[in-house]
Write a structure and sequence with these properties.
Layout: H1 2-19, E1 22-29, E2 32-42, E3 45-55, H2 61-76, E4 80-87, H3 102-111, E5 118-125
Parallel strand pairs: 3-4, 4-5
Antiparallel strand pairs: 1-2, 2-3
């Protein structure tokens, strides 16, 4: 997760800066560290988005969406958050064992999302893809 967090941060930080969005990594919240915190102010209105990043094969994925992220969101003072999950399952890497597909994991996570908060679950498919030059017609 740490390596992916750095890559994601490095891809987003300049875009956020250009757009006037403050992006913080590993901000302190609720006695822990939120992976990403986005803050934007316009017309005296403040918007905060907390993003928690997990690998799909994390040992306690459910805790991230039903406890950890909600606590971060409540501490920041808003209702919005993103639960960002990285999926690596393939013929080479068999985890997570509890879910056969991204869609199955997505449904599970959505069922565990607290109703009182606006949490969007996003899963990024990080499986290695075959190069188009090697694909047989």
């Amino acid at each position: 997760e740490r390596s992916a967090q750095v890559i994601i941060y490095n891809h987003l930080r300049f875009i956020c800066e250009i757009k006037g969005v403050k992006l913080s990594r590993e901000s302190y919240a609720a006695d822990g560290s939120i992976d990403f915190h986005f803050h934007y102010t316009k017309n005296d209105m403040s918007m905060n988005i907390c993003v928690e990043l997990k690998n799909a094969h994390h040992g306690n994925l459910q805790h991230g969406i039903d406890t950890q992220l909600p606590l971060y969101i409540k501490d920041i003072g808003n209702r919005e958050g993103i639960f960002l999950v990285l999926w690596y399952k393939s013929d080479i890497f068999k985890k997570p064992t509890g879910y056969e597909s991204i869609e199955q994991l997505q449904k599970f996570l959505e069922s565990k999302t607290p109703n009182k908060l606006n949490i969007k679950t996003m899963i990024i498919d990080c499986t290695k893809k075959e190069s188009p030059s090697k694909v047989k017609c």
